[in-house]
Amino acid sequence: MSILEVRGVEKIYSTRIGGSKVRALRNVCFAVEPGEYVAIMGESGSGKTTLLNIIAALDKPTNGTVILDGRDIGGIKESEIAAFRRDNLGFVFQEFNLLDTFTIEDNIYLPLVLAKKGYALMRDRLIPIADRLGISGILKKYPYEVSGGQKQRAAVARAMITEPRLILADEPTGALDSRASDELLRLFADVNEAGQTVLMVTHSVKAASVSRRVLFIKDGEVFHQLYRGDDTSEQFYQKISDTLTLLATGGQIK
Amino acid sequence: MKTFFYPRLAASGMIKNKRMYLPFILTCTGMVMMFYIIIYLAVSSVLDKLIGAETLRQMFALGSWVIAVFAAIFLFYTNSFLIKRRKKEFGLYNILGMGKRNIARILFWETVITAVVSVIAGLVAGIAFSKFAELGMVNIMHGEVSYDLSVSFVAVLRSVEVFGVIFLLLLCNSIRQVRFSSAVSLLRSENAGEKPPKGNWLFGICGALLLLGAYYISATIENPLAALMVFFVAVLMVIVGTYLLMISGSVIFCRLLQKDKRYYYRSNHFVSVSSMVYRMKRNGAGLASICILATMVLVMMASTTCLYFGEEDSVLTRYPRDINLEFQFDDLSDFSDEHTETLKNGVYEELKAKNVLLRNDYRYRVATFYGVVDGNTVDVDPTNISDTDFMNSAYVFRFIPLADYNELMGTDEVLADGEALLYSHRTNYNADEVSFKNGETFRIKKKLDALTGGSETAMDVISTITLVVPNLESSLRRLDGIANFNGDSLLQKKWICSFDTGMDPEGQIALYHDLTETLRRDPSSSVKLGYKSVYISSQEFEKNDFYGLFGALFYLGIILSLAFIVAAVLIIYYKQISEGYEDQARFLIMQKVGMTKPEIRASINSQLLTVFFLPLLLAVLHVTFAFPIIRKILLMFNLNNARLFASTTLLTVAVFALFYTAVYRLTSNAYYKIVSGLGGDR
Asked: Given this model, what pLDDT does residue B458 score?
């Protein structure tokens, strides 16, 4: 069974004045299987962030359903949605979204504290994750004291500590320099290798080339998809790049 | 059209930020209004009809300066929030090519709009309410009421002048702030990165020690005179202590909470404790200010209310009968039974001639002097008494002859030589003997629970010990020689005569003036009746005097309290609103990570509760410990009604807390709207 199923999702925004309507998404359908690493690509304004927000239950679709682990997200009560998000989804954002009032350690604990887990359990879960992400040394520091790459790894740790069904990453490398980006992407690959399902939204070809499958979105629709198969990431990079060129020049894809 | 560009830009900017500007303008309006009213009262012709008009004018003039200085400081403080908030917008204008000069023009117009609106509104409100204020004051001081509405141009002019200067200073400050910062720093000013605070143990401990010291002083002080002297020291200690404690003590406290893993890592504590650490660092000073303001309001309201409502009481203690006469003698021989009898007959004749029907009258002879007590020995030699002794261990001693005591109280006590009855006032005398150095020693036969005619003692700030002695003249003869300063006897010899008249208040006051004429001013009476001088007091006359003085104090207390309350409230409001804008992003992240709306609400509530009620709690603690020392000081105003003071204090605290809670609700709603209002909210 798929972990995530997006069926016929449509999102229409009405402008505040005049009521003219903008269709951000139209009939988006795809599924993500357990253990997959999927990247969604598209240009700015293609609707990819809207899609991610809908999957994350941060926004509601105008039409269509999102099924996460067999549960229709639209059917979850308003009051339970935050808890649902907390228990099933892990988030990694472009701008890290770490709280400057917490140490790195406390930032990572945040979702578990909200889920009312005990300190011992949190500590037990943190140690291996921090080890794997190479942030054991900075746990006691505050976000302003560490580098962007370290912040993003802390954000990944925060996403992973709830052992979510799915990690959603929104342009995770957007605010990082190239070295930190490479490191982070390797981490995502590692995490995915270990069985974690990851869905990433990006417009960086490099980031997408690490994934196992790439969905291309254009004008609110899933336009095309590419499987990596047995390609190396360099080969995959080339393919993605070609596809993007075609998309941009408006050529046909067979 | 171009001429109106800057005013319109300024106006639209203010409207966009109305959540910040509206309270600011309201505050300015309120300050102008209060200032106008106080000046109006100070120059009002109604005052002339009140007793002590000059004192009142001075008090109101002083009050108006307090308000003006306070308004200036406070408006500066709130204006800094506004500037901080607008800096980003100005930064944007700056980047878009608007020069600092142009920004200054916008600021200028903003200030002009604020000033014009608030001064006009304040004056209108002031004029409208000044009549109420006047009626209120006249009523409080039991004066005559007139109902014609008038506008005082002096007051209008003074208000415009004072606030004109304040606004000019505000403008200069705003321009200075914008001038000395670059466009980029303007843009970023609101979210500049910040180090996590570290609690300074030394400061925290110092703060706690200062507070404890002040509390200790207040709780242990015995002597009212000493109380007045150390009161301001204690106030200073409390102020400094509160600031130190709030700024670093609270950070230390939160850090300790964070160390306790089981407490800290709970969903309802986690967010609030960690953001509290930040909040405390930035707001420690603000919270301390709120606390000090609240304490001031509480102390001021409680004591002025107590003075006002207790004045009836204190006049009665001070002057137990309608009319009190205190005749003073030069020589001990005037204390003889014969001379006293002659004086009594003469005075009673005089009163009879004036058609006064005496009721509840009493008379007694009394001699008073100062002495320093050490154990059971009393030193009355003035050359041996230092100033510090005088403050700490000096007592007023009164000697009353047994015969007069028996007549006064309707008893028939008998005393042997060397025996005495003892009545102590505002002190406890525990030894069984009173031994005067180089003089007699009295064995205390009995301690008295009550003594009529405490009038004289009630006045004294210093503790009093009254001894009823069998043979007054011989006892005094030896003391008279010792209590002697450069040949002047410090022994006061008095014959006191008090009585009720059954007259109406006007009649009593007329009699008081009449008696002053005949007994005091006319030298022939003193020669005829045989006394050196006389002090005459009338309950009714004193009452009016007290009403004038304490009424004005009470009134000023109310007005100043109002100003302080408004200030405290606005500090809190601005704090929360500006923090709300900063916290927006933080709460957005928490929502994304999975914090539910109720959880956000709960976390906000617990933070606000602390921010709001921590200062209030500390203020109540301050007031509780201020209670003993203020009670001692009130004693100097002859106010010895602990229950009245306790109940006015409790009432003030209750009213204040109620009002405070209402503001808390308003602010918490505004804060919640800001924090949860933006995007991604589901």
From this structure: 47
